[in-house]
Amino acid sequence: MKRIFSFLFFLVFLSWHTAFSQQQYSITGRIIDGKAALPGVTIKTKDNSIATQSNLDGTFRITGIKQGNYELVFSYLGYEPIEKTVSVSEKPFNVYLGDLSFSGNDAQDIDEVVVQGIMANTQAKALSIQKSSPAIMNVIASDLIGKLPDRNAAEAVQRIQGIAIERDHGEGRYASVRGTPMQWNSTLVNGNRMPTSEGTSDNTSGSRTSPLDIFPSEMIEFVQVSKAITPDMEGDAIGGSINFVTRTAPVSKTLKASLGTGYNGQAQKGIYSGSFMYGDHFFNKKLSLIIGGSYWKRNWATDNTEAVYNQDDFAMESFELRDYKGVRTTMGLNAGLAYHINPSHKIFFRGILTDFQDQETALEHTFSYTGKTLTQRRREGVIGIGLLGAEIGGTHNTLGEKLNIHWKLSNYETDMDTRKPSHADNPKNTYKLSMFASKVDYANLAADGKMYLDMDAPAGFQSSNYQSFVPQLKSAVKTSDLRLTQLIELQTQSFERDRIAELDLKYQLNNNIYFKAGGKFKGKYLRRGSPMDIYVNRGANITVESLATEAYDYNGGFMKETGADYHSVLLDGITLTQVDQLLTDSYISENKLMHIARGESSPDAASSFYTGNEDVYAGYGMFNMKLSDKLQLIAGARYEHTALTYYGNEVIRKNVDGKPTADINKVENSSKFGSLLPIAHLKYQPIEAMNIRLAYTRTFARANFSDLNPTENINLIFTPPVISRGNIALKPTFAHNFDFMSEYYFDDIGVASFGVFYKKLSNVIYSSQSFQQIDGTTYRITQPENSENGWLAGFEAGVSKRLSFLPDFWSGFGVEANYTMTTSEMEVPRFSLDEKGQVTKTIAKEVLPNQSKHLFNTAIFYEKGKFMARIAGNYKGSALAIVQGNPENYRWYGENFTMDFSANYRFNKKVSVFAELNNLTNAPLRYYHGDSRRLEQLEYYSLRGLVGINYQIF
């Protein structure tokens, strides 16, 4: 690697010397359309000897040229190519063309757009960036995001080919590229990986997966999904990287705002949204400013049923009915400043602040067939996730405009915590739960005293399927039978901070080749912990009936979609105010509730507390070479060195004099590893409208934070003794990626594409259960390990086409469709202990977790003049969620198909109205146990919608 960098810098030095011996000239400018910059415009000389593209801010730079006249050709999707003659004389050395407009504004007029419409211009931006990108990339732009019924970043990216999302209470939260596990994909903000916060589901807790619902879509200028990266991108992206580029200042003074209101059918309450964006230029356009903000408040509700099954005979051990209601609020603010010292030098600042709050309430009934109990749980909590980011940097062109220097210093923080509900008098910021229970006798049991679904029922037993299943009691339970068992206060503490410094150098050796090299340092600090206080009732006669209660709220009919009637088993619950009053110090003292504190000094909770430091040093070198007028080669390598230090707790449980006891000791573990990532891309353009791409990349995925947690739980009481622990020595998962992609771009703004991909995997991380001999004693060890080998392969195809060849009215129609098929396999060691205590190892072949075999998006849209409408469908196939026991007991995510609708009408250049409808199919969330008929979880969210107005003030 050192030799690569030495060679690159030698070439830079050599060219630097050449620059002083022979003066070079350059042509620069910016291409705009109305108030927006145009990225991805191709600028070529007429003889194709020189070619470049405009950047995301619309600027372009042609360097290394001599005096003379140049016929420049400007090409952009949806516009007729045009020519412009530029004269380069002795002075000045840089010819600055200023703003060139494709739509005839105050700037120099180039030409008029071929296809006009509400959505056309923004599609042209996205497809132009995609077409000119050296990497295999899909792009969507801000204006298109605003025309889709998507209010957060996750729901915006689900429309991209090969992207699947995971939802939380009906809203998109996590994203996955090409069916890979979510933690194998990197989520970037302006090129830097976004710090994560603690997830709440089994799949994301302690992972590196970023929750995207905290990021309002109004703050996004572009979304770039790179499926095959280049060396100047962060390398931990096996599936791909999703880069959110925040908004920058518009071309001219702009102030616009939007307001919306709507309704959630499940909650039967309102939704409210608003946003604004202001941008302007000062000091003779040297200083540019943008400020944007958004607010989105929505009531939500979920009807949920869940079941737990015995892994041997599939008898139902418990069945739950959960009625969720809540209010989610997402607020965002972003600001940007840029000072253009001159056309060659710029410094900038960007800041981001988002705050996501989810106030969740639930009334739950758990019917335990093994414990012969009915438990009612009333809970409420407010979980907040904040993202704060700031970056300052600069771009400088020197050496006759041949050397570009880009530097940036960044600080990003996420903080997840528990907050106090607005109505609560109790000052504690805790998630509150109250639990009441009663002994019950269940009716209609099988001869063995167990409950089964009809598919698992023994001969002679009449049962029902999951959707129509209703627990049957021999005698009704009343609220006076439900006695308080315990109260719980739970806190969530999660903090993560990234401090980043980076430097990139790009040197244009000549018109056909440039070199690029750079370095990056990222220092990460993270902290996790979940303290809990439990208050146990030791005999006080406290029943639901004796407290302040409210009638069970069916939200128009609990689980009405299944047709099952649960009225006979759902009881009134205590009020939320009552829950808060139960947890006051005076009530706890008066009723002599026993307090159990589970903090870092408690054996039951110590393992949830850990901190970590991760330092990443990265460097890369690459070149981009034009081999011919049609063929381009991008090649290089990236090296990332990671140093880890984690601090946690060791918990040892043992018997002393016949009594169980536990010792807690502090532990510290460290490790380091290096990742060399060679990368090569070939881009062949047989005709102007077509790209054929080949890529080889080596990428990796670091272990989840929870996997690196050094905590050890050692239980010497069990036989055999058990050790459960993290594994700081884990290697990252590596992938050799091979990609082929072909793209054809239509003149009327559209694209057809087809690609295949193959990933050879090594060191896939999985949860291992094994047996080890330690000092002559056999221990059962549970810890994350690296598996043997694995692979993932698939293909994707898509088309976006306007039916402009049709006559008159029908020419406004268009179609979009894309499909991705993925299959995978990984080898996982399995260990068992026979009757003689001998350990046996076998190799099982499993599919990757969270990998859906089939994904597709489809849409029909109409865009004509001032009107646009779109109906879109999104399908995600079933996927393995959790490996547990044998394959008959695996937890699977069920297939899901959702449909959404959006429409927009523009009265004039200033005013437009919009309408959005989500979840037209009322698609449920499903998890199942081995067999799709044996559901473990079923959730319904109903329809939600929003209408509003956009106003361009100036």
UniProtKB/TrEMBL annotation:
InterPro entries: Beta-barrel_TonB, Beta-barrel_TonB_sf, CarboxyPept-like_regulatory, Plug_dom, Plug_dom_sf, TonB_rcpt_bac. Residues 490-920 form the TonB-dependent receptor-like beta-barrel domain. Residues 185-210 are annotated as: Disordered. Keywords: Cell outer membrane, Membrane, Receptor, Signal, TonB box. It is found in: Cell outer membrane. Residues 131-240 form the TonB-dependent receptor plug domain. Residues 1-21 form the signal peptide. Transmembrane segments: none annotated. Pfam families: CarbopepD_reg_2, Plug, TonB_dep_Rec_b-barrel. Belongs to the TonB-dependent receptor family. This is TonB-dependent receptor.
